[in-house]
Amino acid sequence: MIYHILNGYTCCFYKDSSNLIFGDSISGKYGFDKDLYLQPFYNHWRHKSYIFNMIKLFNELLIKYADHRLLFVPVTIFLIISLPLWFFAGSVVTPILLGFLLLIVITVQIHLYRKTCIDMDHQQRNIQALVDLHTRIDFRLPLPSLDNWTASPELITRIFYLMKLHQPGVIVELGSGASSVCGGYFCEHLGGGKLITLDHDNNYAGLTRKNLNNHSLDSYVDVRHAPLMECDVNGSTHTWYDLKAFDDIHTIDMLIIDGPPHKTQLHARFPALPLLFSKLSKHAVIILDDASREQETEIVRRWITQYPEFETEFIPSDKGLCILTRKPEA
């Protein structure tokens, strides 16, 4: 079966050994007239079929935006070096240029191999964490998707471990989602604790409420819509959650920071500690997701400089986790 788009209509051609059939998939009318329908259309598009096949093949390549530097940077370097050499030395430098090109190809291949090994290791850890979760918690329904855009199984397992270790009374989560559902199950399993989760996106907050209701966890989790607003942080203006959402929260025993999205502004998650520091309990635990990113690394450095009473523990997961706790009193 061959599909083409012509003048707004989707046309289908079915070919067998005996005949050719033309079909208009929009009107549902089918008929047979090889000379009238097929031949002019075939002649018009025959010379372009190779171009379409090449475009289709290119679109099927598993190339992401992050891979552009692996494609364009080596090619650009090669062109910058090769063109002047070719202009001044001619064919004499051909073996050198081919060798240099081969070096670039091998280097990129080694990089991709190492990256694949790291990704497979993270996948194995996430699978292990997910299996561990299901052996400890009796989930009534399938969990929301735990993919690259949500909390990873490693993060959720770490939250469960810290909740079981510290038995927090009030847990505040910045950024709702699958982790909110899991947090509700953890509170239920441990027999205590209240999770307050905030989201700047009202639609996403509504989806979280729906998931919690489906899992019968409404009594353990309070979902709040807190739009992003300008606020003052140590004399600087930042965009962060509406502080009115925290008015009735007097003590925070565990703070899970997975928002706002880092694209909202530079160091988007920095205000969390300065603005909520006065509400943190004596034994409060702070969990920062995506700690492997450059901005989050800088955020932690600034936090430790401003609040030296905290110490950090870095967990090398796929996105990186950073755990902050107060130093033991001397």
Notes on the protein architecture:
- With 330 residues, the protein is α/β, with parallel strands linked by helices.
- The protein folds into 3 domains: 58 residues, no CATH class; 57 residues; 190 residues, Vaccinia Virus protein VP39 (Rossmann fold, 3-Layer(aba) Sandwich), CATH 3.40.50.
- The protein has 9 helices and 13 strands.
- The strands form 3 sheets. Strands 7-6-5-10-11-13-12 form a 7-stranded mixed beta sheet, sandwiched between helices. The protein has a 4-stranded antiparallel beta sheet with strand order 1-2-3-4, with helices on one face.
- Strand 2 and strand 3 form a beta hairpin.
- The longest helix has 43 residues.
- The chain is elongated.
- The N and C termini lie far apart (77 Å).
- The N terminus is likely disordered.
